[in-house]
Design goal:
The chain is an alpha+beta fold. Helix content is 23%, strand content 19%. It folds into 2 domains: 198 residues, no CATH class; 114 residues, no CATH class. The structure holds heme C (HEC) (7 copies).
Length: 369
């Protein structure tokens, strides 16, 4: 089964450890992580102020998938790819046209006398795996639904293809020739996982004031008093979180085991591979190491490709042949640990993920070229 970008399993936990958020926790609609309530913006410092004192984190951080995961349609990368799409669109869908000539970006589907058009306004994804465009639509009550465009750009093939979760066969709704319609709560969820703050005005998300991307205060909580006090440490800081709380903070967007049907949590199920916190906690490594969290192997302030992730340093922290008390590979291997114990799995047609359920496998998965 193909899961979409926004699967039905939705995290029910907020940044639960953060005391800074606890005053709003009670009022939240538990359906999506960062409730776009104006009160969340209370205590909020300008994100750019972090660079004044934390230039080391900030410089590399800007290259991460987190920092780049949401951009406006006008952004140069988005425009460049839409230009490519405009020039080659007839290869994908003869009824479709992309109009970049005006101030807006419009996609138009023309089938006989039937014409449907959608203005695209945001581009999701850093492009590490994919870019997916959406158009938000105001309704009469000032809410916004969202149409997820049918065509995404994939890094793996450097070309466009159908967006994950959408089918080659077009549906029948009004927007079906152009994509999938999401109602207001679902639309908010996309933004809640791909941005730092969703300010509200008059009870509605103010999309003009979104801070796009998962940046410092999305993980560290509102920091105004920290900035004003020249760096005083606040309660609820990340290093003080317990092992499970730490996992759940990342799992708020990357999903946690509690979001899944227990039936689905089996080693052979490729659908959970995309949800690293779900898989990791099943591993004997995790179960037997009270100190293991996501941060054991990931520095959230650096892009993945600068972390030598394909090396073995992560494993050697606990499986070092120089250490007498460490458990070593019983197949006598000293290298390439990931290949056999943490391989990449084809999850969507054009996207692979790393299986975080670290284990001994009877056979290795075949990855089509
Ligand atoms: C005026 C300088 C200054 C600014 C501006 C600043 N910090 Fe800090 N920050 C510090 C200092 C100093 C420490 C180290 C405190 C210690 O170790 O005693 C620190 C520590 C931290 C820590 C680790 C400890 C903890 O409280 O969790 C985080 C996270 C952090 N800062 C985040 C941020 C973010 C996010 C911003 C931007 C909104 C920011 N800082 C802006 C000076 C600053
Ligand atoms: C607010 C939601 C959110 C939280 C919280 C979050 N992530 Fe992510 N993470 C994302 C999104 C969205 C992406 C996809 C980014 C992209 O477009 O490439 C991502 C991508 C990543 C990647 C791939 C990075 C890359 O540069 O390609 C890693 C690794 C990762 N997250 C680890 C973590 C860890 C570890 C934590 C906890 C410390 C965490 N994430 C917390 C939303 C989140
Ligand atoms: C529960 C949080 C959550 C929701 C809701 C969500 N995403 Fe994501 N999204 C993530 C995380 C985490 C990743 C990184 C891991 C992955 O690719 O699955 C990601 C990855 C992506 C990527 C690929 C980024 C890359 O280049 O690696 C795109 C594109 C994307 N999401 C678009 C969307 C759209 C569009 C919606 C709404 C229809 C949506 N997402 C809803 C958390 C979420
Ligand atoms: C995806 C979540 C995430 C984001 C985004 C994030 N951090 Fe962190 N940060 C963490 C985690 C987790 C730790 C704890 C690391 C550890 O225990 O080794 C941490 C630790 C820190 C620390 C203290 C330890 C250290 O590495 O010096 C500082 C300071 C800090 N972060 C600043 C920032 C700033 C500034 C930004 C934005 C540029 C930022 N963080 C963005 C998750 C995040
Ligand atoms: C034992 C080490 C280890 C731990 C612990 C770990 N990861 Fe990873 N992770 C990796 C490796 C290795 C990769 C592949 C890196 C690459 O391809 O460059 C990876 C890749 C990723 C990616 C990129 C997409 C993918 O699946 O390839 C995301 C997102 C991610 N990890 C999130 C997390 C989160 C969230 C946690 C905590 C629940 C976590 N990881 C814990 C080693 C680890
Ligand atoms: C934080 C410490 C830690 C890290 C990091 C770690 N492991 Fe482990 N791992 C353990 C512990 C503890 C066990 C349980 C050993 C035992 O049987 O007592 C274990 C067990 C295993 C097993 C046996 C699993 C089974 O199915 O029985 C494999 C395979 C394994 N680790 C591979 C790896 C690989 C590969 C990496 C790097 C990607 C890694 N580990 C990283 C601590 C760790
Ligand atoms: C060519 C595939 C391959 C590579 C590469 C590999 N392993 Fe293994 N590993 C295995 C197999 C197969 C087993 C189970 C052997 C058996 O039947 O006991 C195993 C078992 C293990 C165990 C369980 C040991 C126990 O006593 O329960 C650990 C821990 C482990 N490997 C760690 C590693 C680490 C760390 C690396 C990288 C330094 C690594 N492996 C590289 C195939 C591999």
């Amino acid at each position: 089964m193909l899961t979409s970008w926004a699967p039905y399993a939705v995290p029910v936990l907020g940044l639960l450890g953060l005391v800074a958020f606890s005053s709003v926790r009670d009022q939240r609609n538990d359906e999506f992580p960062l409730q776009p309530q104006s009160s969340v913006a209370v205590g909020w410092a300008d994100e750019s102020s972090c660079a004044d004192c934390h230039f080391e984190q900030v410089e590399l951080f800007l290259q991460t998938g987190h920092a780049q995961t949401l951009r406006t349609v006008e952004d140069s990368r988005s425009q460049e790819l839409l230009q490519v799409f405009q020039d080659s669109v007839s290869e994908y869908d003869q009824t479709l046209r992309v109009d970049l000539s005006g101030r807006d970006v419009d996609v138009v589907s023309q089938s006989g006398a039937n014409s449907r058009s959608l203005e695209l306004d945001w581009c999701f994804g850093s492009g590490t795996h994919a870019h997916t465009w959406v158009g938000t639509l105001p309704d009469a009550r000032g809410q916004r639904d969202l149409v997820e465009f049918r065509w995404s750009w994939y890094h793996e093939t450097a070309s466009f293809d159908i967006t994950p979760g959408q089918t080659a066969q077009k549906g029948s709704g009004y927007f079906a020739p152009l994509g999938t319609l999401f109602d207001t709560p679902k639309a908010r969820r996309c933004f809640a996982c791909h941005s730092t703050v969703l300010p509200e005005s008059n009870g509605h998300v103010d999309y003009n004031a979104i801070h796009p991307g998962v940046t410092c205060q999305r993980c560290h909580g509102p920091r105004q008093s920290h900035v004003e006090s020249n760096g005083e440490i606040q309660e609820g800081f990340w290093q003080a979180a317990s092992q499970m709380d730490s996992i759940k903070r990342c799992g708020e967007c990357h999903r946690i085991a509690e979001d899944q049907d227990p039936e689905d949590i089996k080693p052979e199920n490729p659908d959970i591979v995309r949800f690293q916190p779900v898989s990791l906690v099943q591993s004997p490594c995790f179960k037997n190491s009270p100190q293991m969290t996501c941060v054991s192997c990931h520095n959230p302030h650096r892009p993945l490709n600068s972390q030598n992730s394909s090396g073995i340093w992560q494993c050697v922290q606990c499986h070092d042949s120089q250490q007498e008390d460490h458990v070593l590979c019983s197949a006598d291997q000293l290298d390439n640990c990931l290949e056999c114990h943490m391989p990449k799995i084809q999850v969507f047609e054009n996207i692979q993920f790393t299986d975080h359920w670290i284990r001994v496998r009877k056979s290795l998965p075949k990855i089509p070229n």
